[in-house]
Amino acid sequence: ELAGALEFDEAKGNATKIKEMNAKRDADILAARKKFLEDQANFEIGMQQAVEGENRRALERIASDQRKSFVVRKGAVSQLSDIEASEIDKRLALLEEEKRQKLISEKDYQLQYAQLQDQKKQVAERTEKDITQLTKEENALRTQVAFDALNAVSSILQGIAEAQTARENQNLEDEKNRVQGLLDAGAITEKEAKARNKRLEVEEKRL
């Protein structure tokens, strides 16, 4: 009877060990599958970053170049946003696959999903902020251009007015000299000369 009890305990112990070994094996398999998926996703994202690295840097230069048009700079900002969003979407796809294959707990899934969605919101918010800043710069530039144009037109009009005034002043001066010449020649009386000069003074004050 004692021997039977010992055999039972031994068998029970062996069963427990086997169960633990099987559990560890299953956990190792799940971990390996999870690592494979993550490595694959990281490789794809890394390749995307490497391939698009030059393009990304070019877009960043365009977005910050104030000599470029508003439309071009806005397009560059939007493309940069799409690239970042695409990388986050790949990580979301990985997370969904891990959930489908039961490689992640529901708690971890919810946490990582919320974090990735927040990253997408940050990208969208930053893009909106950048475009708003570009819009402000464009509006300021247009206002300055309009202001400069008005100043240019005003300067031209002022120049025309000054030239016209100068011509009229010269005409009045010439007329005064002509009146004086007529008076000196005896062609008109002094009284008539004074009357003409008075009219000329009125015209001069009007300018």
Describe this structure in words.
The protein is mostly helical. The protein is 92% helix and 0% strand. The protein contains 5 helices and no strands. It is rod-shaped and about 155 Å long. The N and C termini lie far apart (137 Å).
Class computed from helices, strands and strand pairing: mainly alpha
User: What's the total helix number?
Assistant: 5
Q: What is the terminal-to-terminal distance?
A: 137 Å
Please provide the ordered H/E string of secondary-structure elements: HHHHH
Instruction: Give a quick account of the main beta sheet: strands, pairing sense, barrel closure.
Output: none
The whole-angstrom Rg is 45 Å
Count of DSSP E strands? 0
Uncertain spans: none
Percent of sequence in beta strands: under 5%
Helical percentage: over 70%
Q: How would the global form be characterised?
A: rod-shaped
Q: What is the mean predicted local confidence, pLDDT?
A: 85
